Amino acid sequence: MSHHDSHHTEDEQHQQHQPTQQEYLSGQRILPNRVRPNMTITELMDEQFQAYNSARLHEASRLFVEKMLNPEQNTTVGLTMAGALTPAGLGGCLITLMEYGFIDFIVSTGANLYHDMHHALALSLHRGDFRLDDTKLQEEHVVRIYDILFEDRVLLDTDAFVREALNSLPNRPIATSELHHHLGTQLLKAGVNPEYSVLAQAAAWNVPIYTSSPGDSSIGMNVARNALEGSKLTLDPLADVNETTAIVHHADQNGVIILGGGSPKNFYLQTQPQLWEVLGIQKGGHDYFIQITADAPHWGGLSGATPSEAVSWGKIKPNQLNDTAVVYGDSTIALPLLTAYAVSKAQPRPRKELYAKREALLTELKDAFEAHKQFRP
Description:
Layout: H1 3-16, H2 21-24, H3 41-48, H4 52-68, E1 75-81, H5 91-99, E2 105-108, H6 110-120, E3 126-127, H7 134-139, E4 142-145, E5 148-151, H8 153-166, E6 173-174, H9 176-190, H10 198-204, E7 209-210, H11 218-228, E8 234-235, H12 237-250, E9 253-259, H13 262-269, H14 271-278, E10 288-293, H15 307-312, E11 324-328, H16 331-345, H17 358-372
Helix pairs in contact: 4-16, 5-16, 8-11, 9-10, 12-14, 12-17
């Protein structure tokens, strides 16, 4: 019997296997556990999150703690972020995860990084009401992000900080990781509250941050303004493609936490097709996948696309679907819970400091690409 025939027979046997009643009912028993005063977050999730979407969040939290953060796996963990999370204060969760060594690099919309800077510069954002009259707000120079309100001066002052920081960057194309590291370094020097900033703390801990659409935010808009004044500083998304691919290529195992979806989600996941499809280097797909999304797969958008669909693209390993979790809901609720669960149950990991290793990782990727050219020119 050939290897192909043997494999085919194994597939048929797997498809013909019908679970027994005992196998169907092998899951942990659901009990109406009581809520007690002073319960910890982990106790609440372990005892109360037993079904429906709460069970998906519990599964995601356990996957993160028990597998992705398992020291024996040495997983390089990326985090992608879409949606206005930093204005809502969610940057504090990311800072905590970076501090504990639980995330190693970030792909974010530019807007999240721009609004992150407000906190470091002590430019205040306030809780408000989503039912206000936006025409009246505009007349009073107040900007609204759903129920978050702030003075329009916050934008102008942040823009001024960005433009001043751009002056000390090289007059040439750079990766967005270099831009964000520089902005974070400037916040550490000049910011009033740099401990509140994802950019600042990422710079301090050498966590690289990428933006998949660098022109699509006020940071990119200010770089564009500089170009009108003759600056040759531009943001090179192709350098970002190679850097993120080099990080994934180097890793023993790869896992991701996806907040929202959008372009950052694809920018992370495409590193695997970049390896096998474009560079001819077979990595096999990502190992772990956690997504928190309000979108659904049947609209056809990437934000709601399932992990199993990603298998067909070579983005996730076919035999790893048990190591994926999708939570349908709001990141502003799920992320603090997942973060609290992780820091309560997992030991801190040594930070990988990948920003400082970018050149070495790129050299490693180039060498692998050249070695595989003889098989796939």
